[in-house]
From TrEMBL:
<feature type="binding site">
    <location>
        <position position="237"/>
    </location>
    <ligand>
        <name>Fe cation</name>
    </ligand>
</feature>
<dbReference type="GO" id="GO:0010436">
    <property type="term" value="F:carotenoid dioxygenase activity"/>
</dbReference>
<keyword id="KW-0560">Oxidoreductase</keyword>
<keyword id="KW-0479">Metal-binding</keyword>
<feature type="binding site">
    <location>
        <position position="307"/>
    </location>
    <ligand>
        <name>Fe cation</name>
    </ligand>
</feature>
<dbReference type="GO" id="GO:0016121">
    <property type="term" value="P:carotene catabolic process"/>
</dbReference>
<protein>
    <submittedName>
        <fullName>Apocarotenoid-15,15'-oxygenase</fullName>
    </submittedName>
</protein>
<feature type="binding site">
    <location>
        <position position="497"/>
    </location>
    <ligand>
        <name>Fe cation</name>
    </ligand>
</feature>
<comment type="similarity">
    <text>Belongs to the carotenoid oxygenase family.</text>
</comment>
<keyword id="KW-0408">Iron</keyword>
<dbReference type="Pfam" id="PF03055">
    <property type="entry name" value="RPE65"/>
</dbReference>
<dbReference type="InterPro" id="IPR004294">
    <property type="entry name" value="Carotenoid_Oase"/>
</dbReference>
<feature type="binding site">
    <location>
        <position position="182"/>
    </location>
    <ligand>
        <name>Fe cation</name>
    </ligand>
</feature>
<dbReference type="GO" id="GO:0046872">
    <property type="term" value="F:metal ion binding"/>
</dbReference>
Length: 509
């Protein structure tokens, strides 16, 4: 059976809207099985566990959610051992998930459009936030954590994926306190005698907004923390790190809370993009030896950023590669995300920013015009100079479309490689797994051999078969297509982010 259809054989309009829509269905069942239907071969050297998170429920007992980002988190674990792979999925058993499943109806307003039944009277002045734990999942310090940026993490059993409870890091976080869903692992932290550390942030709302920085040692203990007030409304989803800085893009948006408090709109529907305002870039030094470091603020052209690929320091400047949008489309009340008009929207594209510290200026240039998202780099180059970026991308080289391909960009030579799964395939974020062995902590802290020596792991939904597959690509040769497709027995709803650990959590036998 052919593993790969070359991109040139697929028409430019490469997707079928009805097939794409089918990927936005709840997966109500929790499975556990060895994957027996394998096309190609799983590399014997691929050992460890891929964890993925995303909204697994798009409805509550038949009551449809208004936006997929309001869906309850579902963790998938694909454990690789001796040329075989085991699949398991479990919902994060949050307080809100359990309450709604027992009640059989929607009990909470969603951030991105979902309202409780009963109109504005049933929603007015209800500002409760349901922790949906649906964005990222990470194994760190012996704990598997499901993350959602507006509340505390949930701890899971990495072997079974059963929910253990909420994680407060020995009381450093208070109940309900946010802990963002985009942590970075500094592979060689100068503040930890060269040991790895996890860096994360939170946005705390109040009379003003505050960025809190957290740094965790390899045992999962918060060893550094500092807070910084931010002027204006802070809509920040992701950030980047270097050895000395945390970098934030403060997107130019306004928030009018009145329709939300009145029960007329969700919080997300009250956000308005302001193209007349600049994007603010906030640099926060990581060194806390002499007290709380003071942020450095720059301004650049208006635009919107969800995700950053990586950043590094070089010759008195910070180089940052990010996926940028010309604007943020409004979330309209009553709109149906399944009816997205891709051609009417501007695509996300890969841009490079040169933040010149001494001149306090920013220059930017376009690296990749193809529609792309979910950038990923070798974990050992986080915060250091990188050569390769891997992304989910559109099949066609221009325009906006669903992600049907995995794109590799060599930022030094400009060479591109593309593995397209069009016309029937729709792909998730590609997770890069180095071929080299990890260190004693189970982390990949050094580049051994070539930076692209490894595999890319992604989940691809097949609209024709109405099933999903775990696809494995050789990161050095995407043009040959998938070297293995692990066909699941069911579909997996389109997910968000994932991570890989060299620890294998496959069952015995």
């Amino acid at each position: 059976m052919q593993l790969f259809e070359h991109a040139s054989t697929v028409p430019i309009t490469s997707y079928n809207t009805e097939e794409w829509q089918k990927g936005y269905r709840s997966l109500h069942h929790e499975y556990e099985y060895w994957i027996d239907e394998v096309e190609g071969e799983i590399p014997l050297a691929l050992q460890g566990t891929l964890f993925r998170n995303g909204p697994g429920l798009l409805d509550v007992k038949g009551q449809r959610l208004q936006h997929p980002f309001d869906g309850d988190g579902m963790i998938c674990a694909i454990a690789f051992k001796d040329g075989r792979a085991h699949f398991r999925n479990r919902f994060v058993k949050t307080e809100g998930y359990l309450a709604e499943q027992e009640a059989g109806k929607i009990l909470y307003r969603g951030v991105f459009g979902t309202q409780k039944p009963g109109g504005w009277l049933a929603n007015a002045f209800d500002t409760r936030i349901k922790n949906i734990a649906n964005t990222q999942v990470l194994y760190w310090g012996g704990k598997l954590l499901a993350l959602w940026e507006a509340a505390e993490p949930h701890r899971l059993d990495p072997q079974t994926l059963e929910t253990v409870g909420q994680e407060y890091f020995d009381g450093v976080l208070s109940p309900g306190a946010p802990f963002a869903a985009h942590p970075w692992i500094d592979p060689v932290s100068q503040f930890d005698q060269g040991a790895p550390c996890l860096v994360n942030f939170s946005i705390k709302a109040g009379l003003s907004f505050t960025i809190a920085i957290y740094e965790l040692d390899v045992n999962g203990k918060i060893v550094r923390q500092h807070d910084h007030p931010v002027p204006g409304f802070a809509f920040i989803h992701d950030f980047a790190i270097t050895p000395n800085y945390c970098i934030f893009f403060q997107n130019p948006v306004d928030f009018n809370p009145i329709p939300f408090l009145a029960g007329l709109k969700s919080a997300g529907e009250c956000i308005k993009f302001r193209p007349d305002k600049p994007t603010r870039v906030i640099l926060i030094p990581r060194d806390t030896a002499s007290g709380r470091p003071q942020p450095i603020i720059f301004e650049t052209q208006s635009g919107f950023v969800f995700h950053h690929a990586n950043a590094y320091e070089q010759d008195g400047e910070i180089v940052l590669d990010s996926v940028c949008y010309e604007n943020l489309p409004s979330v309209e009340p009553g709109s149906d995300y399944r009816q997205t008009d891709f051609e009417a929207l501007m695509p996300g594209q890969l841009w490079r920013f040169h933040i010149k510290l001494s001149e306090q200026t920013i220059e930017r240039n376009l690296l990749e015009q193809r529609c792309c998202e979910f950038p990923f780099v070798h974990p050992a180059v986080a915060g250091r100079r990188h050569r390769y970026i891997y992304m989910a991308a559109a099949h066609a080289p221009s325009g906006n479309a669903p992600h049907q391909a995995i794109l590799k960009v060599d930022v030094e030579t400009g060479v591109r490689q593309l593995a397209s799964f069009a016309p029937d395939g729709y792909v998730s974020e590609p997770v890069f797994v180095p071929r080299s062995h990890s260190d004693a902590s189970g982390l990949f802290t050094e580049v051994h051999g070539a930076e692209d020596e490894g595999w890319l792991l992604a989940i691809a939904y097949d609209g024709q078969r109405d099933r999903s597959s775990v696809v494995i690509l050789d990161a050095q040769n995407l043009e040959q297509g998938a070297i293995a497709r692990l066909h699941l027995k069911h579909h997996v709803p389109y997910g968000l982010h994932g991570s890989f650990t060299s620890e294998c959590f496959a069952p015995e036998g």
